[in-house]
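Obj: model holo form, ligand = copper (II) ion.
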Amino acid sequence: MERILLFNILCLALLIVLPTTWAEDNLISPSKLEMFVDELPDMPKIQSYEVANGFFKSKPLVIGMFKKHWKFHRDLPATPVYAYGTSKNNATVPGPTIEALHGIDTFVKWQNHLPPNHILPWDPTIPTAQPAAENGIPTVVHLHGGIGEPESDGHAHSWFTRRFKEVGPTWTKREYHYRNFQQPGNLWYHDHTMGLTRVNLLAGLIGAYIIRDLDVEAPLRLPNGEEFDRTLMVFDRSFRTDGSIYMNSTGNNPSIHPQWQPEYFGDAIIVNGKAWPRLTVRRRKYRFRIINASNARFFRFFFTNGLKFIHVSADSAYLEKPVVTKETLLAPSEIADVVVDFSKSNSHSAILANDAAYPYPSGDPVNEANGKVMKFIIKEEVEHDTWRVPKTLVKYPDADLSSASKTRYISLHEYTSDIDEPTHLYINGKKFAEPATETPKVGTSEIWNVINLTEDNHPLHIHLGLFKVIDQTKLVNEEEFKACMSKLNNAIKCKIDEYARGKKIEVPAHEKGWKNVYKMTPGVVTKILVRFAYIHSNESYPFDATTQPGYVYHCHILDHEDNVMMRPLKLIS
Ligand SMILES: *C1O[C@H](CO)[C@@H](O)[C@H](O)[C@H]1NC(C)=O
Ligand SMILES: *[C@@H]1O[C@H](CO)[C@@H](O)[C@H](O)[C@H]1NC(C)=O
Ligand SMILES: *[C@@H]1O[C@H](CO)[C@@H](O)[C@H](O)[C@H]1NC(C)=O
Ligand SMILES: *[C@@H]1O[C@H](CO)[C@@H](O)[C@H](O)[C@H]1NC(C)=O
Ligand SMILES: *[C@@H]1O[C@H](CO)[C@@H](O)[C@H](O)[C@H]1NC(C)=O
Ligand SMILES: [Cu+2]
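Output (holo structure tokens):
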């Protein structure tokens, strides 16, 4: 008893004597957390439809955002998080998976219950939503991959605080309306608040959203049902010994931005809310919809026992044919939708591993901790498998370049301080607040040439539009072109055609489908065809895409998006 008291007093004395950074840096070493001890959770499923008199109809949902505690690992104290759920009790990280049906609208009342004082350090010196502190934390939900009206798109300025006490300048409605008229596929919802996206996602505000179309999908006979069709949401986090999420609160340019850092990387790899979980599987085919919900970490997944990935879709649309790979590179927010056939395994377990450097591609190599993702324990007996992977999946129209009504140049810029540390990043050298320059016409397609003038790979995400990657061409005399761009900031005046003549880089087969995010390689011009219309039908949008506040497009490294690698996208009629 006395010894414990003495020990406590000593600890207290230490706390007082040591500089405050001691508490700040009191990180848990990932080697202290044993891998593969927690079972892989399945997030709760919520259907946004119901059957009435033999017909499907919408079932309106109410989903809240709550502050609560979440156990990320058996041996880690519960972590304060922000979680989506139908109640505080059953809110989860990631949030519930919303199951929608093609053609049946989803209605969601997103409700903010978050108290004041953010659980993570944010930075008021970057353009940020700043309601009165006592009103709580601003949030707004974006459905990533959704094709819907601007009012329900979760524009960065459409945020709201708890009980809608304060709302952002473009906020218009409490109940969001998702049409689900698009092709079946994988979407996800996440926070999109101006300047706070990176911290709100880090805190836990993410969840999956699946659109199913039974007419299209049932004949494919891909692995189906709760057991064989699973969503894996992967992200990285670091923790302190008390369980709280650690985010470095010292900016890389503290005199300019006291807290902002250009990229967040965590040491522990989390799948469906557990660090390095395990899943026991049968010797047959499974479908995994793998969503990379990291802020900045790229993953290059592979199986340690040589099992392969059979890609069936990319982002939110099916591929025309399955593509088999041994590894798969996912940028933040990209989705790999793969079938894995465990009957092909020659061992009783397989580790899903990752070997992507961070930042990708030129950063540090992975270590023991972030090089492993999860473990599959494979049952002994071989089973009769009723699922298959057909030779052809779903055919959508090809990218028809001749149909493009406009060609644009989109350049990605990074700015650095005197100490050569990044201070902010812009698209086209323009602030987010400057008026929209990308104003496509509803129903048209456009060619966008995306020019990466930075050292990093930036996953570009476009709201509303789907795109196909046409080609990737290396710049020649890149420094000369960059020098011109930093002066004139105009790709045509800088004679882009004379520089975009280098080697062509092949687009991986499993990324040749219709996408909503693509990795923009540095020093490369990536040509994409963006379609502001459906891909599965010639019908026009059943909503007005030209209304306020419009849409955005941005880099999906959240730390870049917040500061402010994002531009308005304004559709016109
Ligand atoms: C982006 O471009 C920069 C400079 O042009 C280059 O150094 C960098 O490697 C490129 N990034 C990738 C991922 O290729
Ligand atoms: C969450 O809890 C509420 C009541 O607290 C219940 O009605 C609802 O069905 C639960 N949802 C899920 C997905 O478990
Ligand atoms: C936090 O960031 C600062 C500035 O970039 C750096 O000097 C410091 O080492 C970082 N701390 C940790 C624990 O990584
Ligand atoms: C996940 O996405 C983040 C950023 O959006 C990216 O930095 C990271 O590399 C991606 N990880 C995987 C496994 O794809
Ligand atoms: C859309 O129109 C084009 C050209 O008229 C036609 O070739 C194509 O089959 C149509 N697509 C659908 C899904 O109806
Ligand atoms: Cu970026």
